[in-house]
């Protein structure tokens, strides 16, 4: 083989192998056709190179992979994390069944693994599939030693975390169906980061380029001190871009089985319990103003509403502590997961800039349940309809992209009892609860491009001492008069 052909084969093979099958043989062929067109090689030499390329690639491990013809690009990705975590909660009124000022602690070592495939298909379609540990929708963690017997595997299963198909054939529009990454701009105050909603999503995004000013010139007769003339200078216009986006979602929240049960429908709180599938709808319209490459402001007003109640969340929400009921009296749990009377307006915001080459960002969120009066009345507290607000404000410094990068972040959060859906809020820093307020601080450092070490601490208090802390978390107390959590994480991304 001539040296020239060897170089060409190496270049073409690099396209096939280095592109993770995105280029494949057709890209190498296009390169050879271009070289023939430029008369750098002859047709005969090109055919020789094609033949050698097929032989060389077939002998490599990558060349042994067979990818279906409709797949034009495919990516294997994932991450693994090991964590030490300590949580504790303290009891208090209005619970009458648990001794006040008693503390429950839980320490555990945990891991998670997420492994996925995503890619593009012919004709503007795309797909995604991700397997992950744990069956909990708000956590992919597995606790060491939580199985029967030493080193058991009962909880160490692989579950489908994402499985979706999509289409991008329309300009600026993305359509997705299946179990998908969250399509909304959001914060941990409203959405736990591990939740992958199921249903349909439609997204639109368009970038507008703006420019103004400029065009003015200095006097053509300007001179330097030694009398030399200076050419007239024209000022450059100012530029910025605005990303305008709309995100819509129709999610199957809970399937009712059956939709038309035999017998009389149940009653809760003096009202008939709904017996239709539960759906959640999201409507978001936002914009990101990119003033410079490093300075931006983003806001994303959103409305969430619900229809139906399924067969798991169809009792009316209470959020109060357990009580004694019946004869003889037994401990009876109040409903902590109902989705009745939720019409939530949410406004996540973020402002970012760079100073001395260090990125800064101020982020926050504000939410209000517009149907809080009805939710409070159904919970037995008609005078608590003003417990409808949630807000968050925080500051981030630094950003982790590569080895030796670092980040510091902290925020304060306040969530009232009837403000948000308790089944969606973050499961870590306030234990999946509402009627909580407190702060979180985090620090991260990149030990390498792929390995990141994080420390996190959160502290929360019961916001309204006359109500429970609605929701179901890892600390089985209601209310959580005080709550603390510490986490140390080692993350590997690949």
In whole angstroms, the N-to-C terminal distance is 38 Å
The class by helix and strand makeup works out as mainly beta
Overall geometric form: globular
What string, H for helix and E for strand, traces the elements in order?
A: HHHEEEEEEEEEEEEEEEEEHEEEEE
Tally of helical segments: 4
Describe the structure.
The protein has helices spanning 3-18, 24-37, 43-58, 372-378; strands spanning 71-90, 103-121, 125-133, 142-143, 158-167, 173-179, 198-212, 238-254, 267-268, 271-272, 278-290, 296-299, 302-307, 323-325, 330-332, 343-355, 358-369, 389-398, 406-415, 436-446, 451-462, 482-493. By secondary structure, the chain is mainly beta. It has an 18-stranded antiparallel β-sheet that branches. The longest helix is centred in the first third of the chain and has 16 residues, at 3-18. The two termini are 38 Å apart. The model is unreliable at 15-23 (pLDDT under 50).
Describe the structure using short key phrases:
single chain; 494 residues; mainly beta; 18-stranded antiparallel β-sheet; two-stranded antiparallel sheet; 4 helices; 22 strands; 11% helix
Short description:
By secondary structure, this protein is mostly beta strands. It is 11% helix and 43% strand. Helix 1 (3-18) crosses helix 3 and helix 2 packs antiparallel against helix 3 (43-58).
Secondary-structure blueprint:
Layout: H1 3-18, H2 24-37, H3 43-58, E1 71-90, E2 103-121, E3 125-133, E4 142-143, E5 158-167, E6 173-179, E7 198-212, E8 238-254, E9 267-268, E10 271-272, E11 278-290, E12 296-299, E13 302-307, E14 323-325, E15 330-332, E16 343-355, E17 358-369, H4 372-378, E18 389-398, E19 406-415, E20 436-446, E21 451-462, E22 482-493
Antiparallel strand pairs: 1-2, 1-22, 2-3, 2-4, 3-5, 5-6, 6-7, 7-8, 8-11, 9-10, 11-12, 11-13, 12-16, 13-16, 14-15, 16-17, 17-18, 18-19, 19-20, 20-21, 21-22
